[in-house]
Every structure is written in C-alpha cells, then in structure tokens.
Amino acid sequence: MLAHKFKVGDEVIIPTLTFGATASAVLFCGAKPVFADIDPDTFNISPESINQKITSKTKAIMPVHLFGLPCDMKAITELANDKHLAVIEDACQAHGAEYFGKKIGSENTSAFSFYATKNMTTGEGGIITTNDDAIAEGCKRARNHGQSVRYQYVELGYNFRMTNIHAAIGIEQLKKLDTMNAARIQNANFLKRNLPTSLKLQACPENVKHVYHLFSLVTKNRDAALKTLSEAEIESNAYYPIPVHKTELYQKLGYKDSLPVAERVCNEILSLPTHPALSEADLIKIVEVMKTICAQQL
User: Fold this and answer.
1) What's the CA gap between 153 and 169, in Å, rounded?
2) Pairing state of beta strands 109-113 and 86-90?
3) CA 237, CA 67: separation in Å to the nearest integer?
4) What pTM was estimated for this model as a whole?
5) pLDDT at residue 123 greater than cutoff 90
6) Residue 59: partners with Cβ closer than 8 Å, 6 or more residues away
7) What is residue 258's three-state secondary structure?
8) CA 274 – CA 181 distance, rounded (Å)
9) Is residue 240 reached through a cis peptide bond, with omega within 30 degrees of 0 on the bond before it?
C-alpha cells in the first residue's frame, strides 16, 4: 500500500471477515478501510457489497482469499477495471491456491504470510508478489528504510526485512508446499464426504483450487460445539468470532456499518483441523465427534 502511494483521505475496500492485519495495513498508510459484507456460501468478500461501497475516494479493492479459497476475482477485476481501481490481494492464507488454473499471486499485487500456522512458513514474515515493476521497487524501498541505493533515502521507509535464515527455511518449505497442500486437500475431502450433511461447509466453486489453510463451516450453538471438541482433545477455533468493523478499535474510530451476513457467520463459524500431520484415525475421530454435536443440536 505504501508502494501504491495511498494517503490520508483515500479509501480501500476490504471484507470485514478477516484477520485484523488486513485493515491495519490501510490505517498504517493513513488511508481509510471501508468494510464490505461477504458471500453467505464462500465467506469471501461479496462483489455486490464491494460495488455498493465504491465512492469517489476509493483507490483500491483488497480481496482476502479466506482460509485458502480464492475470491471471485473475475467479478472483482471487472469492477476494478471499470472504476480504475487497484487490486491488492490478501493471499496470506492462500499459498498454492488457484483461480481458473492460475496461481493466486500471479496477477495484481499480493501479500502472503509465512506465520508459523500457514501452509508454508519461515516462522514469521512474508512475501509480496507483483506484476508491476514500479510497485516492486516501492516495496523494496519501504522494507529497507526508504533507500533506493545504500544511504540514498528516497522516502520514509521501515525495517521490514526478513533474515537470510528465514529465507532459507522458506525455500525448503516451498519445495514441500505442493505435497503439504495435497495432504490438506485429501484431509478436507475426507471430512466433506463423511461429516453430517446438516452442516453448512464453506462452498468451493468450480474452477478454483482451495488449499484449506482452514476447513470452515457454520453450525448452531458454535460455542458449545467448540467446547465439546476441546473436551475430545480436538483443536478447533472460531475464525473469526468478531467482524473487524465491530471490534473495539473500529468502534472507537466511529464505524457503524451494518454487514448482516458477516455478523451472522461470525456467530456460527468454526474451523476443524486439516493439517498434513493428521492420521486417518484423527479424521475419523473428528467426524464422530461432529456427528455427536449435530445429534445434540436436533
């Protein structure tokens, strides 16, 4: 966003169902995050809601490929092109995901996270991909104290550098990414085949490759379900229990948006494990506990 030269008064449209860093990045530039609602089936940002949020101050759309599922990029790109807006993709959970056969991150500008829980990791940090040379140079300056060459400070920059040690870990992780993603997909497919049909799972449209950073669904009495899973020693969580615009910071900033789909989903969403280390016995246990939870909800 620094490389895109966003400034005070500019607006960037983002989903409200996301991790807080999506919105923080906008604030760090002095711009304003504008929250959009989500699609009730995919849980990703709704193109219709984006369209309703566009104003004369809008400079960019930032879709989040939530849980590893690519957004409706065709509709989002058409909107952006029509309104002359930049598209910056939050791909922090989408390593290896594909949209109509193209890897997420191969178009526009995208940010991937290498946090410890992601599909690949360096322990911390991340990577930016872009098809724009000017944006690439701007990102390099921003991460290294605003230097174009050593000791030439072109603009205000930061210390956002990763270490070579972290990069070395990342290179080895990248070699294993396809194998680890294949295991996640296999585990997710097992759950989809065997979980009770009464559960509403995150929908995966045709022509996209979901890499299942998280396997998410909505269920009644979510908190009770999480308690039952915990008692069975199955790690699960709610991602995310509060839409960002409803959190304390944004309430203090005066946000009063009504985004009913996201607000409902946040009350019902939970995620089940699909990480590559799961055994078949682990998966069977998850299914059996979820069947018990569904039976208790009838």
Assistant:
1) 30
2) parallel
3) 13
4) 0.96
5) yes
6) 4, 6, 10, 11, 12, 31, 85, 86
7) coil
8) 10
9) yes
Q: For residue 90, how many other CB atoms are within 10 A of its CB? A: 24
Q: What values do phi and psi take at 167, rounded to 5?
A: -65, -40
Give the tokens for residue 146. 């605003």
Which 3 state secondary structure label does DSSP give 144?
Answer: strand
Contact 119, 176 (CB under 8 A): no
For the stretch 241-292, pLDDT in tens is 999 999 999 999 999 999 999 999 999 999 999 999 999 999 999 999 999 9
The CATH code for residues 11-165 is 3.40.640.10
- Which residues make beta-bridge pairs with 51? none
Residue 228, both tokens:
């039952």
DSSP per-residue string spanning 193-247: HHS-TTSEEPP--TTEE---SSEEEE-TTHHHHHHHHHHTT---B-S-SS-GGGS
CATH of domain 185-297: 3.90.1150.10
Distance CA 286, CA 236 (A): 10
Domains of the chain, by residue range, sit at 11-165, 185-297
